[in-house]
């Protein structure tokens, strides 16, 4: 199965506006990206909308999850 590469994987994640929003979160802060609410807790990055609620240990895993969902929209 081929995986589509994100432009920001080549240019660097720090230049991606989605990554910047996730990276800028402080504990107990939340940001909305399209239909997703992303919240940073003391242990996880939580992603939720009407269909799902997922937790990620790192901002990178959270970012790649959100990126994959945004590409399918």
Provide a compact summary of the structure.
The chain is of the alpha+beta class.
Fold topology:
Elements: H1 7-11, H2 17-23, E1 30-33, E2 36-40, E3 45-48, E4 53-56, H3 59-71
Antiparallel strand pairs: 1-2, 2-3, 3-4
Helix pairs in contact: 2-3
Shape: globular
Strand content: 15-25%
Rg on CA atoms, Å: 12 Å
SS-based structural class?
A: alpha+beta
Helix percent reads: 25-40%
Q: Quote the distance from N terminus to C terminus.
A: 20 Å
Poorly predicted tracts of residues? 1-5
Instruction: Tally the helices.
Output: 3
Structural summary, described in words:
The chain is an alpha+beta fold and 73 residues long. The chain contains three helices and four strands. It has helices at 7-11, 17-23, 59-71; strands spanning 30-33, 36-40, 45-48, 53-56. Helix 2 (17-23) runs antiparallel to helix 3. The chain starts with 6 loop residues before the first helix and ends with a helix. Mean pLDDT is 85; it is low at 1-5.
